[in-house]
Amino acid sequence: MKSSPFTHTGVLLSYPIQSDLTVYSGAVTGADNFDRQFGAWSYLGGFNWNSTDKAASFGLFVLNGDVSETIDDNLTYISTVFQYQINKCWRYVLQHDRGWQDNDLGANTPTADWYSIVQYLTYAIDESLGAGLRAEWFRDQNGFRYSAGEAGYYAVTAGLNWKPLRRLAVRPEVRYDWADSTSPAFNRGMKDDQFLAGADFVIQF
User: Fold this and answer.
1) What is the pLDDT of residues 32-74, one digit of tens each?
2) pTM of the entire structure?
3) Which of 15, 68, 138, 152 is most buried per CB count within 10 Å?
4) For the domain with range 66-203, which CATH number is right: 3.40.50.300, 3.40.50.2000, 2.40.160.40, 3.40.50.1820?
């Protein structure tokens, strides 16, 4: 479920306060925005901490600012991520996102709220192949993020991460989604749940 921005355009500065703690601060043109509303800038900042043995880490980031140049529609995202390397093969990740936006014309209240919890468990089979499980819960409190009204969305995903080449990753996965919405949330309002199968190819450069 999409509850937090994927991309930012702007400037982000980092400063290592000490070996295990780094702070970040900058300005961006909003959430997932590249070519519109250039007068509505947002603040982006946070910190990342690593344990002495590098097995655990915790990060917190905040995005805050108006989405539009013409109205007061302040958007705030808070994202926290905890990671723990259980042993050489197993890794656990817990992520919590919270967002709210003022004067949202698509919501039934002056402020739209949404939040989510995502858990990952991955296993490194060898240097080029890994397997993973992901469990997600997303709450669209005011029915703004999706079109099925106030609802909770759930998903369970299993997948592989295969690196046949140093700069290429192939990631097939299967996924099951369901929702507790008052109207069907999937297949253009025709189904209460869905199965998906897909794959992506990531080229690093």
Assistant:
1) 777 777 778 899 999 999 999 999 999 999 999 888 777 778 8
2) 0.86
3) 138
4) 2.40.160.40
The confidence score (pLDDT) of residue 188 equals 81
Give the Cβ contact number of residue 96 at 10 Å.
16
Is the distance from CB of 97 to CB of 79 less than 8 angstroms? yes
SS3 call for 105: coil
Which distant-in-sequence residues (6+ apart) come within 8 Å of 164 by Cβ? 128, 170
Summarize pLDDT for 132-157 with one digit per residue, the tens.
999 999 998 877 777 767 889 999 99
Instruction: Report whether 186 contacts 192 (CB < 8 A).
Output: yes
**DSSP characters over 38-83:** TT--EEEEEEEEE-TTSSEEEEEEEEEEES-SSS--EEEEEEEEEE
Lookup result for tokens 């937090």: 4
CA distance 16 to 14: 7
CA 144 – CA 142 distance, rounded (Å): 6
